Amino acid sequence: MTPEIGAGAVMVALLLALYGSVAAAAGASTGRTSLLLSAQHAALGVFLLVTAALGLLVYAFLTFDFSVRYVATNTNLGTPFYYRITAVWGALEGSIVLWAWMLALYTLIVVVRHRQNARELYPWVLAVMLGVLAFFLLVMAGPAPVFQRMIPVPNDGRGLNPLLEDTGMITHPVCLYLGFTGFTVPFAFAVAALATGRVGDTWIALTRRWTLVAWYFLSLGLLIGGWWSYHVLGWGGYWAWDPVENAAFMPWLTGTAFLHSVMIQERRRMLKLWNISLVVLTFSLTLFGTFLTRSGVIASVHAFTQGSIGAFFLGFLALVVLTSLALIAWRWDALRAQGELDSVVSRESAFLLNNVFLVASAFTVFFGTVFPLLAEAVRGEKVSVGAPFFNLVNLPLFLALIFLMGVGPLIAWRRASLENLRRNFLAPVVIGIAAAALFRVAGTASALTLLTFGLTVFTATTLGVDFTRATRARLRMGERLGAAMGGLLIRHNRRYGGFVVHIGILVIALGVMGSHAWSVQTETTLKRGETTELAGYKVRFDGLAARQESNHFKVVGTFTVSNHRPNLAVLHPSKKFYPQEQAPIAGVDYRLGLTEDVYLVLGDFARDGSHATIKLQINRLVSWIWVGGVIITLGTVLAILPERRRAG
Amino acid sequence: MRRGWRWLLPLSAIPVLALLAYGFRLSPRDIPSPLVGKPAAPFALQTFDGRPVSLDSLRGQVVVVNFWASWCYPACYEEAPVLERGWREYRERGVVVLGVDIQDKTEAAEKFIRDFGLTFPNAPDPAGKVSVDFGVYGVPETFFVDRRGRIRAKHVGAVTDRVLREQLDRLLAESS
Amino acid sequence: MSRRLKFVTGGAVIALALAYLIYAGVTQSAVYFVTPAELRAAPVAGKSYRLGGMVVPGSLAWEPQTLNLRFTLSDGQATIPVRHRGTPPDLFGEGRGAVVEGRWQQEGHFQATLILAKHSEEYKAPHDTSQPGYKELIKTLKGSQP
Q1: Complex ipTM value
Q2: Domain B31-173 indexed as CATH 1.10.238.10
Q3: Are residues C43 and C113 located together in one domain of the fold?
Q4: ∠ CA(A389), CA(A395), CA(A398), 5° rounding?
Q5: B-contacting chains (≥3 CB pairs under 8 Å)
Q6: Which residues of C touch B29 (CB under 8 A)?
Q7: CA closest to A244 among chain C residues
Q8: What's the pLDDT tens digit per position in A608-626?
Q9: d(CA A206, CA A187)
């Protein structure tokens, strides 16, 4: 019965969403509140139905209901309990269910939060959200049905892709999807603003927190993806410019740009056209990302499957892009700027440049990702560009962004005087250059590393300068140090929350710099008892063992790692043999450190355990990337707090 | 900006969308294999029943060479009934369906054949030589060989009743 | 210079710099997809290729002590000898599909810097590759015939 009930729920939800979307739009244009209320009820109904469908799916997984095709394909009797839950979003059809559920949840939250405080925009917002939801439900009902009956019911399922049996699998897609779907809300508000002609600040003020939350989850999802790649996939890296990684990175870039440019619109009423276009672009990129992942248009390690689903997504993407751009063209006059850029040397200018570079980066990532298509269409050649392209083009952009990150918060609005520049930037520039020089003296030769380090120090110093100056002002007014600093953070939480996030980005930048500049690796075959050496570490091969786990057979190697401390760690890289998979999956083992990671992969081995081939890496500063993620979390929490008024 | 120029904005999106749509044309399911139009490499295999089968012995008939494996799930599971149906319908008309099992275990393969009640000949390709000769890249892949022993089409992924019918009707309509 | 002109010039400079970066990036890192037959027809020494085919049974030779790996790739029409230094990935074996990235050597073999073994499953573009050294998969290689 499960497949039929689930499919039925999806079908009804689809019809309700379509109805709700049309009703909300009709209510918006005619002003009839009864239609709007009806749409609200529809939204609630959709949420309940999608929750039921998701719940049914989870239940089917937990009870090994192999009559559901999706369950049979993605789990088997040996799959551990918690992975049976996460298997729900482990493949194409289930991932769409998760996406739809989050959208439905967000829609409900929008209903609750905004039906009172956004009277004019709200009906259109609801219409758009239900419309997007209807699309995903359509995909669930049509090309990617998750509730298909399996005949005959097999005794055992195929099993979850072993690489997905990992804690990263639990969190990475969830975070990413929360981010992706989160951007639907600002987009819906933007469309509502265009539809009603209220393209001023209202829609921006209302969506500030939504944008921040969506941006945060997207950032977190990307970082967790990097972590997952690092500790599971066994190549010692965390980012490969894979098309699907790029697909998630592009909306992050434009989302970051949007996050910053709205501040200009709030202060100076400028960049209205830019902001609306940016949020449309960001949302379109989230759709594009999901299109890329599911259509097979561009090959990728993440890509799900092909079929008609890609055409569905492309069609919807085209609809969204063309309609939004047409709306923008329609409201062109209202979107023209009321303020003007006074000077190139100003905060507005710095923010604008920040946006330009972020969007330029998104463009280059887009270009590199679709380049194979372009080359084939134009020259008939099968070419692609890999990591070197993305690194080469993005590096200057990212360095420039680090620099702007230091300039932006301190430089004056409108027009910065020479005095203002000197006061704010002389010390940071000097310290940045001094730091780079020190680094050079300490032995680093690479100009790139020195430049990165110098810029990072410069930006960090500007943050320090600003915070110190503000604290000193409070101290002079008689406050105590702790209260002064705490008060600053709480009172100006948006500003300092942003600072903390920037610090997190700087830490990540240093981590990336370190891992690229200073990591080393070697590959070698060791006899039992033999030791290899790399970068001050000695690794000794002690032996091999084999055992049977619940759903796989495992061969584990034992390696003792020493540096100046003997027996620093014992590592157990392994190979797992899953019956349903053709080939074994490597299990990496590592010892993480704040500055150095020892990373070991088991390659080939002799059946009698007499020798083993290993790949050993000493990766530097990679942990800083994860630490940076924690700092970004703290900063976001601070920035999102409700603003306090004068008191306190 | 004069009134008309603003509409450039939505129009500018069309080339990008067109490019993405183009990406669809390149469906790998219709891979123009380099071998299409060329004579199929000769092979001699022994079926799971122990009977020999070779390409030469099938000359004069239309041959459907289907590469599969018991672990290839769900595609091979979907197309097995299709192939069996096609075999039963077309065998009197001069068509042979030959399944070639690759990278598989004998017991698992024989179970697969039993479970689906396959009556057309199936043979393992233990050394993988036949799959290499056909340029097989994955499973399932199906090759349609005409009466003169030339590969005329390659289908990647689970074969459907419609594809089977179309190809067989086409090749049968040709004179030897 | 009027303010507007300053901005337009600034924008143009940025756009041009970006275009140059992209051009340099593409020419430096472009990788061409070829089949053994295509490579045999027109090999260019030093050019970066991605070569795909089946590993010919009997051609695989792996020496754990020197980490030298040798094998031959075939597409049914032509064969290319390949050399690689390092452990072969797990999904790699004789009679299976593989894609290698590297350069053609004057001496007549292909020096692979990366091996991407293809998951010989159905044409679901796979979502798992597990071995050091590769993460992407090439989908398929078109033959040189139209």
Answers
A1: 0.79
A2: no
A3: yes
A4: 135
A5: A, C
A6: 123
A7: C136
A8: 888 889 999 999 999 999 9
A9: 12
